[in-house]
């Protein structure tokens, strides 16, 4: 007889071990766990370098009955990503991670806040609610009309330098960790499976891009969507997002998802118009050392 796992957090640096333990839990709600599913799919395909060379750590929370009741994913230098957790579960995670340099947390609103409170209490770090996001799911796709002049095409190796530059600019705009080296790994990963679509102007110049994650548990996530500042307001982002969404559906994705920053009314309005519908709100909390004095 196989013994039930000991209740509490089990930590592992092995993505296959993590998925063997938590895969069923994650696949049961692919929309809610889209980040973990897509990141682990890329890690298994490309190795840990795809998200930087600073290490990875995963966690599985076992309940009293031996079942999985929570997870976390941490690919450094990115922020900790947590599943839905209550205050007690979040506090137990903060205890399990004490001594590690956690710089922030992302998860559904209540879980992100619960871990931020626990981390602040356990470590003395200063927690700040930095970004509020909303997860959307595609309903009936309604491409924007009239479409802007030009056409979509899938990015290739010849576009690598452009993708690196635009991904780095996107990270700067959104305050996402990673830097240029992370953008290089990201570009190589996405090019390997046709995971970025460009919108070209009528004269063949790329003016916008939309990425899409590897399909995992039938779901994909559109990310990132980026248009250089000088080219915004011309409909390019809507057109390229509608195209990658259509292509994902055509490729068999049962769920097409994306996140938006709730502070950006323009993007939220755009995605609603082309057929995306709200699923759940998420939040980012960042941590800094306490000020002296």
Describe what this molecule looks like in 3D.
36% of the residues lie in helices and 29% in strands. Strand 3 and strand 4 form a beta hairpin. It is α+β, with helices and mostly antiparallel strands. Strands 1-2-3-4-5-12-6-11-10-9-8-7 form a twelve-stranded mixed sheet, sandwiched between helices. Helix 1 packs antiparallel against helix 2 (34-46), helix 3 crosses helix 4 and helix 5 packs across helix 6 (179-192). It is globular. The chain is built from eight helices and twelve strands. The protein has helices spanning 15-27, 34-46, 87-97, 109-123, 160-174, 179-192, 236-250, 265-273, and strands at residues 8-12, 56-62, 68-75, 80-82, 104-108, 126-138, 151-154, 196-200, 206-212, 219-226, 255-261, 276-288.
Describe the strand arrangement of the main beta sheet, using strand numbers: 1-2-3-4-5-12-6-11-10-9-8-7
Strand content: 25-35%
The overall average pLDDT, rounded, is 94
Spans with pLDDT under 50 lasting ≥5 residues? none
Termini separation: 57 Å
Q: Globular, elongated, flat, extended or rod-shaped: what is the shape?
A: globular
Rounded to the nearest angstrom, the radius of gyration is 19 Å
Please estimate the helix content. Answer: 25-40%
Oligomer: single chain
Biggest sheet record: 12 strands, mixed
H/E element order: EHHEEEHEHEEHHEEEHEHE
User: Helix count, per DSSP?
Assistant: 8
Structural class: alpha+beta
Number of strands: 12
